[in-house]
Please model this.
Amino acid sequence: MLATQDTVRHPLSQAHGHIVVETNGAGFQDVTRRVANWLTEIGAENGLLTAFIRHTSASLTIQENADPNVQVDLLRSLDQLAPQGPHYVHDTEGPDDMPAHTKSMLTSTSLGIPVVGGSMVLGTWQGLYVIEHRSRPHSREIALHYLGTFFSDAGVQ
Model:
């Protein structure tokens, strides 16, 4: 195997954590800064961050953070793909529950994000969001796992 100039061999370590996000009902909740702060707290340098939402009626996405109308249009699109209505068999938790499960399946429950120099490698207009698919507020947990190198021994397991 030929090495490129970007290939550097370091022992890899890992860190685990989580953040809890309180949603206000259906919509996008920006968690970019909170996840970036966690990476700083653990001393992450270069590696891969995995974010996983531990729910079946909410999801994660990387999406535009400049124009809030993008989020409005995305929510409308998801509502068109999985509208509320009496046509679902599963309705134990209300009319928004089954559409929320469908929307979660169409989006993502986990994301892999490269980390370089301690920062997530996101594009200029990208942010990390929880998408709440239920109508009422919920408490959502995002499990975080970082595998890579560290600036110090902080957070290393």
The first strand starts at residue 13 and ends at 22. The chain has three helices and eight strands. The helical segments are 32-42, 68-81, 97-106. Residues 68-81 form the longest helix (14 residues).
